[in-house]
Every structure is written in C-alpha cells, then in structure tokens.
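Archive transcription. Copying these from loose printouts into the bound notebook so they stop getting lost. Printout 1 of 2:
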Amino acid sequence: MLSHHGFVNNTKVYYYRNPVDTVATICNPLPFFHVYGMTLALGQPVVRGQKAVIPNPGYDTHDVLKAIHTYRCTELAGAPTMITDIISHPERSKYDLSCLTKVVMGGNIVTPEVRKLTEKEFPGAKAWVGYGATETTTAATLVSHLDPESKRLTTVGRPFAFVELKIADPNTGVETPVNEPGEIWVRGHNIFLGYYGDEEKTREAITPAGWYKTGDLGTLDEDGYLSVIGRLKDMVIRGGENIYPIEIEAVLNAHPAVEECLVIGLPDERMGEELCAWVVLKPDAKATDAELKEFCKGKLSHFKVPRYFVYEADYPKTAIGKAQKNLMRDAARKKFNL
C-alpha cells in the first residue's frame, strides 16, 4: 500500500535532484501498473507541469521512436532492456532523436556498458540511473548530470533528500563498514504503508524503527554512493563461499561473442550450489563452454567460474524486461536433470 504523501513528496525530491529541466517533454513507454511508470514518469509531469507522451497502450519499440521524433521528447524513461531495444532497432536511423537530453533507467541493474552505449548512441543525452522498489514508491537514489562521471556510470547515486539509507548485515541488522556488502535498508517519507491484508509479511519487511529491508545486496562508498550487487536470494553459496552473480556476469558480458549473460545458482549435493551461466550470444556468434571458462581464467577466482552453461536466444522476462530467474532455474534444472 502506497500513500499519497509518499507519492507526491517523492516526486518533489526528484525535482530537487533535477531542478533545471522544468520544461521537459517526457516519453513514458512504461506500463502504469509498474511503480516507475505510475509515479516518477507520470507523476513528475503532473506535479511539475511538464508534457507527458504515452507512445502506446502497450509497448512497441517502433512507436517509442516515432513518439520521440514527433513530439521532440527531451527525456526518455525506461527499463534497460527497453533502451537497448530502441538502440538496436533496425529503423532507428530514420528518426531524429537528437532532442533527447536525458535517458532515465531503472527496474533492473544497469551495467556501465549499457550506460556508456546509451550516451554513445544518444550523444546529446546523459544516462541517469536510480535505485528503488515498489515499496519505496519508486526511486530512493539517483545519479544526475552533476555527479562525477566515475560515479554516474558505475553507481546508482545517493539517496534523495529526506531519505535515509544504510547497508546492514541481513542477520543482525548491524551496519556494515564502508564498501562492505550487505542488505540495503531504506527509511523515509517514501516507504510504503504495508502489504494489504498481510500484517506478518509487513512486520518482516519493516523494522520497528521504520527501516524497509529491501532484500537487495549493495555497498555504500566513502562518498555515500550506492552500488547494487543483486538480490539477497540470488546470492550463490558454493562450498561455503558467498558468490555474487553480478561479478561473473560482468566478466562474461565482456566476451566478444556474448550479447548478454545472467548467472544463477543450481542445487548440487556436494557443494550446496553450483553456478550456471545463461548466455545470449550475438547474432551469428558462436562460443563453447570450454572457451567461456578459459575466458574467465585470470579474471575470476576458480570457484566463481560457472560449471554449467545454457545457450538461448533470450531469457524469460517480466513485462518491463526484468529477468525471471525462477523460470531460468527451473529450465536449467530440467536441462541438466538436477
């Protein structure tokens, strides 16, 4: 349950982070049942008197291109998969997208490579990336054009005004040292009221002190910038070692044949869990398990090199492009008879 107070005030603090763009025309291809599409991408133009462009009742990449071109949109909001789909669309060159000054991405981890690609393909625009959840009334942190490039391209920024954030040991709640991973906890005006009809689940998610335990893993650096590692439930424990899939994904995504790679954990009787890389290859590219394992050597500790590899044209996604890792695990377990 989200509050009107949280909705309005989160839109206002977004403005504090971004006070210069008062006459923006925002292209919003996101579904309104998603918190990002409902709040910042729609609430922002309503509260600030900006123009909102809705390309399609559903989602169609070609319609987004036409909308940006026709209405001279200055800002594009979307999930990273939407942005990469726009960049790779075969008819993109037919449209003038030079009006874009900002591409705001969220809803999934946005790699430095995707941010750099976005700014390369839209030369007049900066990539803005935030972090949040439905329970935080969309974004709780955000980078901006004012942040150093090293932070803007690698982190999800600092908390909004009036929002607190800490990294805590998920078992004890004790705050972790700078740059040490832990669970991301958020507190502030933007925190949801609770899960409707489920007081027990609400108590599990929100501490008596008002901290929302996100279930996400991250680190805070010495300047207060947040980096997201992944979901707590996605962390793989292999032979007693905590392994974060994002580290392995970053290495494999750098392979010249790999379009995209996601890493999941699969059950193993001896080690507890084993690593499985779900690989989407570039068009006409080829790669073998042995080749990808060799590529990992020297870049990853030996116990972080995946044992299993799945090669598919894509991976299961939600309506806004989030990976459905539960379905990926089910498919991989079936493939390897686990």
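Printout 2 of 2:
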Amino acid sequence: MTKPSFSHLLQIFPCPNLHVTADFYGKLGFRATPYLDSTEPHICLYRDNIELILTQSALHRIFPNRLQYGYGYDAYFITEKQAAMLQELVDMGIPIVRPLMVTDYGNKEFVFEDIDGRWIAVGNKMT
C-alpha cells in the first residue's frame, strides 16, 4: 500500500479588483477562466503548470506578506530557466524588485512585483 501524497499546489490571491489583476497576469501569458456567477466569484488563471485563483477582497488594498509579517514572498513560481524568464518579464516592463541571484538558502531566483504589490519569486534550487 502506498502512502498518500500531494501532487500540486495552487495559489489564491485576494484582489481589490479581479479584472485589473487578471489583466496584469494576462499580459504575462496567463489564460483567464472567469467564474463570476458562482457563489464565491473568482477568476482562475493558467500558465504552464501554474494555477492562480483570484478572489474579490473586501479590502481596497492588499497587504503583501513582507508588509504584514516583515518578510516573505507572496508566491514562488518554479522554473529552471530563470534568466530567460527574467528577460521575458523585463521586456514586458514588469517591475523587478530583486535581481537574479543565488540566495543564502541555495536557490537561484529573482523577484517581481505584481499590480497589487505582491512580491513573486521566480526560481529553483541549485543542483
């Protein structure tokens, strides 16, 4: 008998404006599927193996982890092609808040800021 295991994770982002946030991620190549008539309206975003769920926040502003808790990213997108992904985002004019570097915990990553002020790390463990 095999032990049960987890296979995936999706990230939920509360948003002050679902459509503005969905448009931002659409420019990054995410495909949007809206579920605005459901009991809990939301928009699912898909790119490669990433799924984000945007929900409508009761607040007019998002408080990213680094502001609420003093540090921390709001999501971590994993890729082995960090430099190419960085260039793609730079070419789109996306704000890069931390350059591509190797962290003290052994990840090669960079960080961008989304339309709502979230810091999204993009990287992977060094092998």
